[in-house]
TrEMBL record:
One of its GO terms (molecular function) is calcium ion binding. Residues 8-47 form the S100/CaBP-9k-type calcium binding subdomain domain. Pfam families: S_100. This is SNTAN protein.
């Protein structure tokens, strides 16, 4: 659908696609499914974050109240929080690309 889209549009479309492929018929993920998805699909961003208090807080929130489900908005907010605290983000900022 976004064959002609920008890199940013394609990135967001991919996030939505991954979420939707894992969501239940109501369009939500269980907290356990969210944690598993982050560990399998977002590994490079969360790698090495295990000792950071904010990371522990985010993961412990996913471990609590397993019957509560996460919608796409909450999923995206979680991705943003994990990205902002990731060591990988600084490495990405240091890479200069030419087009």
């Amino acid at each position: 659908a976004l064959g002609q889209g920008s890199d940013l549009e394609k990135a967001f479309a991919t996030m939505a696609l991954v979420y939707n492929n894992n969501a239940d018929p109501e369009g939500k993920l269980s907290r356990a499914e969210t944690k598993s998805l982050l560990q399998t699909q977002f590994w490079h961003f969360i790698q090495g974050q295990e000792n950071k208090p904010k990371y522990q807080e985010i993961i412990s929130d996913l471990d609590e109240e397993p019957e509560n489900k996460i919608d796409f908005e909450d999923f995206m907010m979680t991705l943003v929080m994990l990205t902002l605290m990731s060591d990988l983000l600084q490495e990405i900022k240091n890479v200069k690309t030419t087009k």
